[in-house]
Amino acid sequence: MSRTVAVTGVTGFIGRHIVEKLLSQGFAVRGLTRQAKKTTADNLTWIQGSLEDSAALAELVRGADDVVHCAGQVRGSSEDIFTRCNLSGSVRLMQAVKASGTCERFLFISSLAARYPQLSWYANSKFQAEQQLTAMASDISLGIFRPTAVYGPGDRELKPVFNWLLRGILPCTGNPESRLSFLHISDLAEAVYQWLMTALSEAAPFELCDGADAGYSWKSLQEIGSRIRAKPVHLIGIPLPLLNVAADISTLLHRIARKDPMLTRSKVRELTFGDWSASYCRLSEAIGWRPEMSLEQALRERLF
Ligand SMILES: NC(=O)c1ccc[n+]([C@@H]2O[C@H](COP(=O)([O-])OP(=O)(O)OC[C@H]3O[C@@H](n4cnc5c(N)ncnc54)[C@H](OP(=O)(O)O)[C@@H]3O)[C@@H](O)[C@H]2O)c1
Fold it and tell me: Pick from 183, 162, 76: which is nearest to 123 by CA?
């Protein structure tokens, strides 16, 4: 009999790919959604509700063997917005899992940002959630994934940067030597699948990246772009004061439009941080997963 996985964040960039992967591998999926319009698929059951709704969460995990918690607040102009979703929402989901009596495993999609909780509201909310979930898990087998910047079809954040790079312009938000890392969505979905297929008791947290040694500097991205274009790429440094002004304008405009901004001063501290290199070795040792897609290959084949 196929296993049933309850998944949150199914309507988002990462969750959508994870669900496609799980359905293709014969899992039954129960997906949480706040949206009225839903796509249909065999073996996919939609549960209407949010992380703020305990009854919906109880329904989501009813009869499920595993949970993949992918919903998260990635934009916002105050700490409270991140805490409410990423911390309180995750705790509420774990409470539902523990009350379910059927769920055995809980995979939390955290973020590499959780490595430095002091940097941003987002980073801190993910770190606090990791701590709380670990404290609560007891008989539930918890896994914590810390993916670095994820890209691929459906992503809206890195796509414009990569498009500019391939047109010959690379806007650089920090020291040109600072370290970045990336992960293609197909590799993340495969890692989730392999985690579900492995009886792993260690929560970790596990970092996930594409395995480029010591990550990428802005200069190495410039070189990759130049190789693919067979023409130069211009690296354009954006000074910190300008980034902060852009963040303030973005925050104001989004407030007027009653939307959550991505670019805030809190996010600028993440963007300009000097070392976002990561290592996937620990996860590889634990479940045998290895990333397949290099950034250069993905850019060359326009797999984003
Ligand atoms: N993208 C990356 O580079 C990256 C890197 C590391 C970690 N992550 C983590 O991966 C997860 C998914 O990121 P993403 O890039 O796919 O983001 P996304 O496209 O913005 O998707 C976020 C998902 O979470 C759902 N969600 C947000 N708040 C919710 C709430 N209160 N109740 C129920 N659902 C809620 C959204 O539902 P709606 O569609 O209804 O808004 C959406 O399905 C997040 O936890 C993020 O922190 C992302």
Answer: 76
